[in-house]
Design goal:
Helix content is about 65%, strand content about 5%. It is mainly alpha-helical and about 675 residues long. The protein is globular and about 80 Å long. It is built from 31 helices and 4 strands.
Amino acid sequence: MSRADGTVPSPLPQPHPAIRFDPIGILLGLVPAGFIAWRLFLPERAMTDTGPGALADLAFALTFWVYLLTVGAGVGCTVLYLVRFETDSAADRLRFGIPIGLGLLGFIPLFFGLAGLLRPGWLMVGLGLAGLLTAPGARVAVGGFLSLLRGLARLERSPRNWFLGVVYAVLGLSTLALALSPPTGYDDLWYHLEGPRLFLRAGRVYPEPHNWPANYAFTADMLYVFPLALGNDTVPRLFHGTFALAVLSSGYALGRVYSPSLAWLIPLAMLTMGQFASVATQAATDFVVACFELLGFELVVQHIRGGWPLNLRMLGLCLGLGLATKATAGAGVAAVGLVLGVWLGVRVLWGGLGAVSFTPADLLAGLAVGFIVILPWYGKNWLWFGHPFFPYGGEGAGEDVRLRMQLLFDYMVNGYGVPRSLGGIVELPAALFAAPIRFGLASPPVAFILLAPFAVLLIRRPPLEPAGFLAVRAVAWLAGSQQTRFLIAGLVVGTVLLAAGMGRTHLSRLHRVVRRTAVWATVVLAAYVTLLYGRLAASPQQLAVITGYESKEAYLSRRRPGFRALTFAGTLPPESRVLLVGDARHYYCPPTCWPEADQFTWTRLAMLADFHSERLVRTLKAMGVTHVLVSRSDVIFLSSHDPGGWFSRSVRFLYEEVGRRCLRPVFVDWASEVYELTCSG
């Protein structure tokens, strides 16, 4: 199929995904056995260990990450051939191939888990087979990567390019230093890492009754199973950072469509979101979802504006992987669908059905690919819980489960952001920057403040594709959970829109001066953020835990609020049972901790007991609870995102009623406190 300019794109430099046992394939197939041997001789260092063992962990993490990237790239490039993705650019093959390949690798642990074979040996066998069978694709990917490096070496030695090189090098090294330290993110320790670890312990994927988020669609989380199976929890952080880099590259690629001269500014502007690197180095899925949304949107944009063939199989694959990672990707699917649907509708109006560039068979094939990708993730929940979107849909069995679902839904959907009213919408732009805690602690890129005036230049002939995508994404975000991390794809597309306005030709002299000022101010902001992260990553405190001068336990005691309380809980008698209040991070919890499903176990128990202290104590005793651990910082955060007021009321009830009668403090520090339950019930 030719482009709009009449040229024909070259196919992948891989004639077919041939299964041939060449040396590269054999090497990729045998490497997992080497990782198993490595772990047998050099197991993961203990929490209290210091010394050179940390360097062995560092080497293992980096080596395993590079290996999985290589295999993922091989899988991705093979799939690009199978869906007939055509491009002349090695960069495009890598930008699409690596994320898609990594996402598909998550299916290996899923199917092994559903078959009850979720063991390190089987996982490494599956990984080795994937490397063996897709070695030709890995060759293509590695060759493309080397050609990109050679291309970078030939870039013009201009001051701007030197500056960009320094910024990306410093931020890249800083991200590595952050990612290689022990995980501390709230959601990571609640379910992104804890869920896969629960399944690994059980040797299977099962309907988890306590840790509800572990039952979500979780393609990326299952990718994290590979390093976790070999005792490493920093490689998942490196993977999330990899997807964050893919998001920045997608922003640049979209910018090249609408404003080629200022496309370089888009990733730089996104980096002025001060939490970008810290969110990127959490073992989460926010950048994974954003990556697949942007790849799907780019396919549509490049078809409309750049003459790419409309590859519906590829589109179904990208959007399907987004949905298989998180249900919130549904908003991105709707946004891409609207843009494509409106454009096709206009084409049909002006040119009839003959103007449509695909056949019904192509459409069905694209839908089938997307459906096949998402079916295992939502189908299992449908079978196990009666609804594909559990716990945000379906009917709860019993009052306790219904109350769980009600509290969680209210917290997620109504606990963040501004009121859904005209006043709230007017307040929104200022609130995003002035009160980021209302939006989940993260604020948008500060460069938005500098670039926002250029939106005026979009009034005449606005780029309709990004405008439509952003409109749908913003409306869905306003109607749902207003957390900034759920809007990353929208923030990228918004930056593309502003760059398109700035890049308009025939501007007045005043406009050119203002544009130059905004560009340089964005550069200065990005340099400032780079300096902050560089100083943090290069600090002795940050490097100490990576190099072995500090133990993991000492690092976590400094960086993770409540870790000392969990350490204390580990010293309690084995028959003890500790109920958490405000904290759901079970990853570092000793076996004495009661499973916290949704952050609201205490609240739910208080509500079911009708806030009657004696009745609640009897329930706690029946559960075997002997101690209560209160995380003060988390209590404060949850109380500020408590639309129904039930959580705040339950905390007051804990201190004023139950605490006064039945709780004796046995541990108190700056972040948390542990109480012994003294009443007999």
